[in-house]
Design a protein that fits this description.
CATH topology of the largest domain: BirA Bifunctional Protein, domain 2
Largest sheet: 11 strands, mixed
Distance between the termini: 39 Å
Number of strands: 24
CATH class of the largest domain: Alpha Beta
Strand order of the largest sheet: 4-8-9-15-12-11-10-23-24-22-21
Shape: globular
Helix content: 25-40%
CATH architecture of the largest domain: 2-Layer Sandwich
Structural class: alpha+beta
Number of helices: 14
Strand content: 25-35%
Radius of gyration: 25 Å
Number of domains: 3
CATH superfamily of the largest domain: Bira Bifunctional Protein, Domain 2
Length: about 475
């Protein structure tokens, strides 16, 4: 096995020179997306959308295994319906896109392009839930939502983005709270098993929780520039929404009750997390189980006798084993192809030329570390499948090691400033006073990312106010 330093792709800005420009370069040059004529509304190109489809496939399977059913709700919400939940309205009002004219007529009840669908689901649940026998209701929808953002960046923050939003109703509080935490674990599994992105997870502070929720739980990823990226959330609403929207049923004692509600969602922001968490100066580095192409075959000297025939045989063998494989038979040079699929982050590049065929082997190159491996053709398929598993494990371990090394305790303001300035999570003992949380944002432009589920106190006082500290909280600058 040979490991060589990777060649620098001159068309991509180096990460250390301008991380934000590097990100934009990769999104465009790897053909993940393009800009549309409306700010914040992007075009998902086939390669980028295929990544989302692989995320969808994993989650959809997991959701259905846990009893959830897919539905689809309307794109628009009557303003009168949206206004029924006061805190919810206040949370989303600054981001709403509102339709005021239908055809040639001004609308008496304006239509809000959905920023989220709690109100629509509640309206529907009020019609179909009449008895405890109708519960639980475990629904999910795959759709897009619109939030009119001032500052946009592909995948990370858009005026429109793709996501899934789950909405459930339950007989009792315990069942609903258990649901919210169960879905958070599925998201955590997604990071570990598919994205090769380790998450920290926990409960949001009151300031940071979802508008209208009693509890919000989140998974948070840490990017190479030291900023956190909220990657998914689940919410426990109690029965506040169901009361506001008249969702009631006859319980087991024959009395009228309001069900307990949850919601949960992840979006195409996960594509942004993959790009940043794993990419390098040559472009994307895609985890094998989310990559649209897992193995690309490059026929070297493809015009020479037998090369394309053998390459096609290998292609068919890999495809038969369920590997997402592509063979590039275009008239581009082999060097161009090497750089192209390196930029697109294909996990394995398989080179096959006359000399390889003569020696009955192929050269395989791992994208994550540039290692070159010579593999006999007789065991090529099995070894490629094994290498895909190896690459995933290596990528996850690299990201996990980075995460662990960037969670540090802050015992005072100077340490807090140093950690937040250099990047990563500052682990802080907090008094649970909103004023201290606001002060950290004011002083350091950092927010409370989550209150970890595992609480191991390490100080007695809050470093902001000096009062008794009661919770361990992770603070960071964030996207």
């Amino acid at each position: 096995m040979e490991n060589k330093n990777q060649f620098k792709n001159q068309s991509i800005t180096r990460q250390e020179d301008d991380f934000a420009q590097w990100y934009t370069d990769v999104c465009k040059k790897a053909e993940l997306m393009d800009y549309s004529s409306v700010k914040g509304f992007i075009i998902y190109r086939p390669y980028g959308y295929a990544i989302w489809e692989n995320i969808q496939n994993y989650l959809d399977k997991r959701f259905k295994e846990t009893g959830h059913q897919n539905v689809y709700m309307p794109l628009v919400i009557p303003e009168s319906l949206f206004d029924k939940e006061k805190e919810h309205v206040e949370g989303f009002a600054p981001e709403t896109l509102i339709a005021t004219i239908g055809g040639q007529n001004k609308l008496d009840d304006r239509l809000i392009i959905r920023p989220t669908s709690e109100t629509l689901f509640c309206e529907h649940f009020a019609k179909i839930i009449k008895s405890y026998r109708d519960l639980p209701k475990l629904y999910n929808q795959w759709c897009s939502v619109v939030r009119w953002e001032k500052t946009t960046r592909p995948f990370l923050r858009g005026s429109e983005f793709l996501w899934q939003e789950g909405h459930t109703m339950h007989e009792d509080e315990l069942e609903a709270r258990t649901e919210a935490l169960k879905m958070l674990e599925i998201y955590d599994d997604l990071g570990r098993d598919i994205l090769a992105v380790p998450f920290v997870k926990g409960r949001k502070t009151e300031k940071e929780r979802f508008a209208g929720a009693l509890e919000t739980y989140s998974i948070e990823a840490l990017m190479p520039d030291g900023k956190a990226l909220q990657s998914g959330t689940t919410h426990y609403f109690g029965n506040g929404f169901s009361e506001a929207f008249g969702v009631s049923y006859q319980n087991r004692d024959g009395k009228i009750a309001h069900p307990y509600q949850t919601s949960f969602g992840v979006s195409t922001r996960l594509i942004g997390s993959i790009i940043m968490a794993h990419g390098d100066d040559n472009g994307l580095v895609l985890p094998p189980f989310v990559a649209p192409i897992q193995v690309v075959i490059i026929p070297v000297g493809q015009n020479k006798p037998g090369v394309l025939t053998k390459a096609r045989d290998v292609y068919e063998s890999l495809k038969k084993e369920g590997v997402r494989v592509f063979i590039d038979e275009s008239d581009h040079t082999a060097g161009w192809k090497f750089a192209e699929y390196e930029m697109k982050g294909v996990p394995l590049r398989l080179e096959l030329g006359p000399r390889d065929i003569e020696n009955n082997h192929a050269t395989v190159v791992k994208r994550n570390d540039g290692a070159k491996i010579t593999i006999p053709l007789s065991s090529l398929v099995d070894q490629c499948k094994e290498l895909l598993n190896t690459i995933h494990k290596e990528m996850y371990q690299k990201a996990y090691k980075y995460l662990l090394s960037h969670i540090r305790e802050a015992h005072n303001l100077d340490e807090l400033k140093e950690i937040l300035d250099t990047g990563g999570y500052a682990k802080v003992m907090w008094c649970e006073d909103r004023a201290c949380e606001d002060k950290i944002k004011e002083m350091f432009q950092a927010t409370a990312r989550c209150i970890p589920f595992t609480q191991i106190p390490f100080d007695d006082v809050c470093p902001i106010c000096g009062k008794k500290a009661t919770k361990v909280v992770l603070f960071a600058k964030a996207y």
